[in-house]
Specification:
By secondary structure, the chain is mainly beta. It contains one helix and 13 strands, in the order E-E-E-E-E-E-E-H-E-E-E-E-E-E.
């Protein structure tokens, strides 16, 4: 099994929520962590369950709109809950390079099971890229959807990520 370090500056997280007026989008680099897997020809090898841990600081979650960012920071409680994290517990092949991933996400002091779909591909001689997405309901993590003036945010959040992992012991 090979351990891959997530390269923060080449990994991206995009979270999108719908509102009564328009979509709200958070896009940020800075995801960190690791995953361990046996990768053969751009696929997870048989017989060894991949595992991993990812996290991002909540203060990095920004929309670019000062009003939204202030409300986001307040609601997320960035001082009390400085990190959103996730752990992989199960990976099942769907077809080719697609996999169903299950794990747990810790957000706003609450840990819940989550699952989503990922694709993997070889990115370099000593690295792989993993892309995936999941949808969660912010109420499951103790957060009520915000209301700002005429804007009402819907509770479902779609999170997409692209993670570049490089072998930790690559030559």
């Amino acid at each position: 099994m090979t351990r891959y370090r997530i390269v923060p500056e080449h990994s991206l997280v995009v979270a999108e929520a719908r509102s009564s007026l328009h979509p709200i989008r958070v896009e940020t680099a800075g995801l960190r962590g690791f995953f361990e897997a046996d990768v053969q020809n751009g696929r997870f090898g048989p017989g060894v369950m991949p595992r991993g841990h990812v996290e991002i600081e909540t203060r990095q979650l920004r929309t670019g709109n000062a009003l939204y960012d202030g409300e986001l920071e307040r609601r997320l409680g960035v001082r009390e809950y400085p990190v959103v994290g996730g752990d992989v517990s199960d990976v099942r092949e769907l077809d080719g390079d697609r996999y169903r991933v299950k794990g747990e996400m810790s957000f706003h002091g609450v840990t819940r099971p989550v699952e989503g779909e990922v694709r993997i591909r070889s990115a370099t001689d000593h690295g792989i890229e993993v892309e995936g997405e999941l949808v969660f309901d912010m109420r499951d993590f103790g957060l009520e959807p915000p209301r700002l003036l005429m804007l009402k945010v819907h509770p479902e959040v779609r999170v997409r990520g692209r993670v570049l992992g490089e072998e930790q012991n690559a030559p």
